[in-house]
Amino acid sequence: MTIHQLELAPDQLTRRARWAALAVLMLPVLLVSIDNTALSFAVPSLSRSLEPSGNQLLWIIDVYPLVLAALLVTMGSLGDRIGRRRILLLGSSGFAAVSVLAAFAPSAGWLILARGLLGIFGAMLMPATMSLIRNIFTDAGERRIAIAIWMAGFSGGAALGPLVGGWLLEHFWWGSIFLIALPVLVPLLVLGPRLLPESRDPDPGPVDLAGILLVSTALAAIVFAIKTVATHGFDQVAVLTIGIGIAAGVAFVRRMLTRRNPMLDVRLFGNPVFSMALVVNLVSVFALVGFIYFLTQHLQLIAGRSPLDSAVMMIPGLVVTIALGLGAVPLARRFGAVQVMVAGVLANGVGYLVVSALGHTGSGAALLIGFVLVCAGVGMSETVSNDLALSAVPPSKAGAASAVSETAYEVGAVLGTAVLGSLLNLAYRQGVHVPVTVAADDAEQARSTLGGAVEVAGDLPTHAADALLASAAHAFDSGVTVTAAIASGLSFLVALAAHRILRPSRTVDS
Predict the structure, then answer these.
(1) Cα dihedral 83, 84, 85, 86 sign
(2) Is the residue at 431 inside a domain?
(3) Fewer CB within 10 A of the end CB, N or C, for the chain?
(4) If the chain, 510 residues long, is cut into consecutive pieces of 10 residues, what is the mean pLDDT of each piece?
(5) Cα–Cα distance between 354 and 370 in angstroms, integer?
């Protein structure tokens, strides 16, 4: 392809050029999803090395998708203004540089800061990929396949993260998982300028600083409140931050309704198909990320498996996610989009139900069966829900719809660990019993996280260590059954709502 071809309108690109561009765009998609779940897989290693508190551990995981979700709409608007390819390459450069800094973070606080910066640059990557796909693939059939591949990359990358992370942790230190960015983003920076056409909105809306502040405040306050409740219960701080989050969210919606050219068109939520598809999108990612959070800890810290062995045990989930992600579109054509989407959410609920029923036994088999079922559900529901969301709105609103859909995905990733992780930590703290002979500081570390208990037990006499490890394992697995029951009930409720609200369709609309 010549440089001249890069300036052609996307619909003038050859078929080969379009699919080559998609291959390049899959690089940041895989990176962002792998990076998020690979870090969850490194929780035990992080706990031993940096000794974070339970709250710090959740922030290490959550701050990245939280910042990313808060800025997705903003960065999408900026890409419309300065060029989507340009912001993609800018985000890739920043992401690669900060990844190196995160790999060598000396403390939990520094790692939280680095993860926040990664969220800023990650927010530049994701809206640009979907916007470029929409502009490159003008044919509805090709675009549907491209979106299916995009979602399969997202879901597959989320499941692939533990495998990549497990191999790295088997051979290197925990910081090596951040260096995954380099071999992925360097090819993007080299090939992107040659294979990706530039595109921008000829009449972009203004950057709304007040709107950015309101939506960021709403998300941050609500997630902070969830963490506070998990650590201290419903105290004054939790109540205050919940109030701030709700107030900021209401103010943001009101502002968007009164602006002529809003950064986020909230009127789209008046379409029941669009709204329900987004709920399914969010809950599916919520289920997957939350499951990976506690499965990786159980396999390593309770079952005693190495990072690589644990990752290998999760391969069936990876395969199922990719297979059903790619197969969701033909299944939707045959059985109907709504039916396939509902079946996916039901699979999430059944997967968590298995864990809720058998998780207290410490059965690794029950966890892995539940994981495969959740992966199957995510593979089906994610692809169809995104396609339904985009097809439910007029073409002129496709850009806004995709930005909202991507935001729902990332908010689901935030809440997966913020809600389920916080509930699990709360149940663990209430259930674990630390021997009275343990020093106060060590006892607090053991009560904070499962990884902290394992670390403290390593310095105790055999009898006390065995007692602490047994109590920690029981408290953790008991907490898993509670959180799994909540996630299962939520999935079943969403499946019922989707079935009742949406009229079944035999095909995915164009």
Answers:
(1) positive
(2) yes
(3) C
(4) 43 77 85 70 75 76 74 75 86 91 89 90 80 76 75 67 74 85 87 82 73 84 74 79 92 89 78 87 83 80 78 80 81 85 92 83 78 88 78 67 71 74 82 85 80 82 88 88 88 91 56
(5) 6
pLDDT for 399 equals 61
The domain of 368 spans 11-194+263-501
Whole-angstrom distance, CA of residue 201 vs CA of residue 83: 8
Helix (H) or strand (E) holding 422: helix 422-431
Read off the tokens for 334: 């045959």
CA atoms within 13 A on the CB side of 329: 20
In a domain, 202, yes or no: no
Can you give the CATH number for the domain in which 149 is found? 1.20.1250.20
pLDDT at site 162: 66
Q: Count of domains in the chain?
A: 2
Asked if residues 32 and 122 have their Cβ atoms less than 8 Å apart, the reply is yes
CA distance 317 to 299: 15
3-state helix, strand, coil in the chain (%, to 5): 85, 0, 15
User: What backbone phi and psi angles, to 5 degrees, belong to 42?
Assistant: -90, 5
Asked if residue 201 is part of any domain, the answer here is no
Q: What's residue 54's pLDDT?
A: 67
Predicted TM-score (pTM) above 0.70: yes
Residue-level pLDDT at 495: 92
3-state secondary structure 295-328: HHHHHHHHCCCCHHHHHHHCHHHHHHHHHHHHHH
Establish if 506 belongs to a structural domain: no
Beta carbons of 33 and 363 less than 8 angstroms apart: no
Cα–Cα dist 65/415, whole Å: 9
101 and 233 both lie in a single domain? no
Asked if 21 and 196 count as a contact pair (C-beta separation under 8 A), the reply is yes
- Beta-carbon contacts of 181 under 8 Å, excluding residues fewer than 6 positions away, are 31, 35, 95, 96, 99
Cα-to-chain-centroid distance, residue 226: 17
